[in-house]
Batch of 3 targets.
Target 1
Amino acid sequence: MEAASTAVLLINKWAELETVAKITHEKGKKNESQAANGTSSFHFNDVFSLENEGSDDMTTLIDKKDNVFVMSNKKSKYPVLQVDLRLISDLVVVVVSAAIGGIIFSCIGQPVIVGYLLAGSIIGPGGLNFISEMVQVETVAQFGVVFLLFALGLEFSLTKLKVVGPVAVLGGLLQIAILMFLCGITAMLCGAKLSEGIFVGCFLSMSSTAVVVKFLVERNSNNALHGQVTIGTLIFQDCAVGLLFALLPVLGGNSGILQGMMSMGKLLLVLSIYLSVASVLTWSFVPRFLKLMIQLSSQTNELYQLAAVAFCLLSAWCTDKLGLSLELGSFVAGVMISTTDFAQRTLDQVEPIRNLFAALFLSSIGMIIHVQFLWTHVDILLASVILVVVVKTTFAAMVTKIFGYSAKTSFLVGVLLAQIGEFAFVLLSRASNLHLVEGKMYLLLLGTTALSLEFSCAGFPQKAAIRMRRKYPSLKLTDCCDL
């Protein structure tokens, strides 16, 4: 009896009990007359339902955070392979809908990112509600974040950053600091938390590397002065993403300022140690390891591809265990390989995996977007997008002008950086997990980001350049068309 009470005390001390609702799905009896003559009614959602004669004992668990888990692994005295058919069905629906959305938006000349988001919003709970296992789908989709940042690290180039170093690094840092300060002050004046305002400033400071670089390359402007400044700033922002991920747990904490500063100091110490170890491994281990993988996979790239993915996941796992973030670890893994001669080869191998999981991730983000919310608050969203474009253009142009660039170059850089980037979705997802941003603010930032990307790719930069041509008649037409 004493041993039992001791065990109970230990359990209460070390374990956190959680109330879980258990739901057992029992198939109702069919109408015998309908079953006999085959006249049972047809429902469109039945196409996506996998309920069959053997699924009547499927159990669903709902935790205290309203997360839904399907217990598909039945007990058996024999070791057998278990298959979650519902999850497979959901993944098929997500991938197919993302492909359709991406194809449609690509055909009309718009970014496929918006197509993925829209497809997710249509099939999600706020739309047709085709997805049964949201938690499982979102968990698998998190690999998209890991591989996105891994590929971003592989494309990292310190040489490109040095070309326009001062304006890219100092100017980019100044833009982030200004937006963080303004949003923090605004949040305090509006009665919101300072940490939420600082996050919104970080969130708004990100611009879309993929959209802007593609835009510049299509117009042969990537080697122009404004193109170099813009790309340099984008590279710095991409680097800052990793550090912002390390900052989010501090912002999401409930401790005071002193405790937060101590946590930040500890975090920076751990980060410094990790980066030091990573830098040593970069020149001592990584090149030899990749060279060995190439030799072992001379006939096929299968082993090299698997080794690259494993290296990325291992680095992400290490940073997560150190209290940093999965995203930072995957980015550092990419940067480590980018310093070797195998960066492009690795990127070629990882890119298909990245594209698949990135589409899955963006679609899962879209599933959170409620179409009704967007329609109800369309006026607020449009006003937010216009405000974001004006504010980001103004501050980016002002900062660029401070570093001695002409008014034309400064304005073009500001226009190109006016949207919110796709990695803001990753930041927003992480902030939501930390309960830093919730509710309507989350949906508002989500919708504003999607609309700003759409607005950016709908021809705003070209029209802005034409207006600038009218304002400065001395400029050559080709100067503005170079945008």
Target 2
Amino acid sequence: MDAILSRVGDAELRQHCVDAVLGELKQVDNQVQNVVSALERTLKVVQASRDVHKSLVLNASEQVQASFRQLGESCNQIGPLLRLLYRNMSVVSSSTTEQPATPTSSAVEGAAPTVSDLQTESKPTATRSTDSASTTTSEYEPSSDEDDDDDVEVVDVTPPTRNKKRKAVTVDLSESTPLVRRKTLQENTQTVRNQLAIELRNIRAIQISRYTVAEHKELSSFVKSIFTAVDNFHDWQPRDDPMLAQLLDEMNKRMDSFKDSSTQNARRKAMDEWLQTMTASSFVPSLDLKSIPLKKDPRAASVEKCHGSQDLSALVKSGTKICSKLRTDTSSNEEKKQKYFQPLVDASTKYFASVLAMEKQEIQANGASRYNDSLRMLCKLAGGTSISRKECAQLEELLYHVRLVMPKNKSFRKKAVKLVFDLLALFPPSARPTFNYPASEPKSKKRKKNKKGSS
């Protein structure tokens, strides 16, 4: 490097560096002008929207507020970069300053015109005092303690001052610019949680058919930002938060209306990863396990049912086969759960859903006692391992069908009471459903039989 530089004169090297910096500055200026043009265009669209709809208050939309905050945060990055640019352009390189650090007054006066020349072009009468030079410098340079703060901080963009002539949600950009203040991590955590509640309320108000790709993209960006900072929040673990889990459920339910494409596949992949990240603590019971008399819940997932005794017997054999394999398996508890939990819970749910579809009482009772073993096996499989949010939902659906079958067979009900208690114990206390045992229906049916006998 020294050999190459020795062949280049100082003036030539200086000019080359100046040209390189000048070219970059001009290119950046062109790009900034494009940003300014885009902002002016956005302002015209806002003004036109207000002219078309006089009562329109754009800041009433949470999505508009979120986009404006994001724009403000992007703009706030320009100021610190300008200060760094100015500081690096005005400070002499350490390699060329091996002389005493304290400059003489004549040296300061000689360097001042490089800054003051910019002022004298627009203001010829301005003096070239050291005070004016320091004022110009402080406009770009960071404060003395800006680099000494090691605390984790979050930059929050505060909306501009409000115009008294309009409603409180209206922002007047002509009077002031967005202000920047430092927020503690605790404040930012509460801000994110509040925004999460707002987004959940808003998406529930949107019909599935009216849910757009743009809305999904904006929500996905919000969710992604949460998972990116998952370990940086104060006393809050998003993976355990029921609100975040419900927001993902609402997004997942609505995105099914989008057409199939490679982009849609990417959306599904991201959604599956987020849902799998959620823990059992984020589960929220949704099915009716409490009503007396019993009621069917339309929210229960549709299960393919059989309509004959032969099909029902085949389901019994299927569950028995899974239990037999499980008894002879010598794998660890975690491996057994991975292999048998899903097939066993699916077979059990399908069996009890099919029992409900049968009309004859003797067919309804067939195999119910044998499926007690399946429920017992499920308790053992999940008892020694952690349970996921998805498994909580599957167990809740199984409990829903078991509860509807219990009044139909007295012997099954007696054995199922203890098993239901064990299944409920698998849920985290904060996510455990409330289960009311249907004890009154079998008695009422028995009284009806006595009346027929007396007549």
Target 3
Amino acid sequence: MVLMVEKKVKSEAEVVGFPLDSNEPESSPNCSNERLQLRSRYRELIATVQKNREDMLNPSNSALTDILVEANELFKDVRQVREAALDAQLLVVATDLAKEKATQMCSGSDFDPNIFAEHLLSFMGLNRLGDRGDEQQDGRVVDGYLSLAAWQRLARRAECCFRTAPSFHFMNGAFHAKPPPPKPRMQQERKDPSKEVIEIKPIQKLEGSHQEATETEVERILGYLQCYYRDEPTSPISYYEFVIDPNSFSRTIENIFHTSFLIRDGFARIYPDDSNLPCIEPTEVRAMEDGDLSNRKQCIISLSPKTWKELIDAFEIKNAMIQPPNE
């Protein structure tokens, strides 16, 4: 075991700078007295650990700690492989002893009622050498070893471990609430369903009013379209510029909705311009009726607030071509 540790320390000594040819005997003239004393002290520590092994296993004994502290101080002067091997041997012996000591400490951690009773009696002030007879305190005779003061001392010490909330005391004595008496049920007279009069209200016709409002708005938008086309018949009218209201997204949706009736009924048509952008212009109803209906196409326009803002910026729309109805 020592030979293996010595070989290992020798390989490590090449890294830390120990001389590799330091295995000369102790009688060599190159081996100074300081080296001899250092090795001798290491051997003494190893012998001390092996000799006093049983005493050092006692949990209250701190001799092992003192030996390790001294070994750390000796290691500062280690310069040769033989000294490092002795230090490693001491460390192995001390490690085995510390492991066995730790095992004994862990195994002895169980609760011992006898030891607890001894500590408790010492805390209460039991004097085993005193008189075993009865004691006279406050005119009363106390049986046993302990006096009333000892029990009071134990009670004061244990009181902090049993803190409880104070009990609740009724100001007006005990009160037992009784449930209220049940209320008598009142029998209601059953009504004859044949005698009930059902009032029939006239149904309000709202569809006609909404339809009239839609037709009025469609005619108003057609008037705007015809007016713009009449002013500049050769200039195409952009569909987006015509229906988009830059100040109101909801008004833009309403304009698209009402303009779709113009396209459906043939009062206007949408066609692509040179840039393939949709344009709108008014048409004659007869021309649409005489034309080929197979060329007509339907589509659904989807417009979100984000796209609405992008179209306003792209076409630089400042004012609405279709004014709101109240203006």
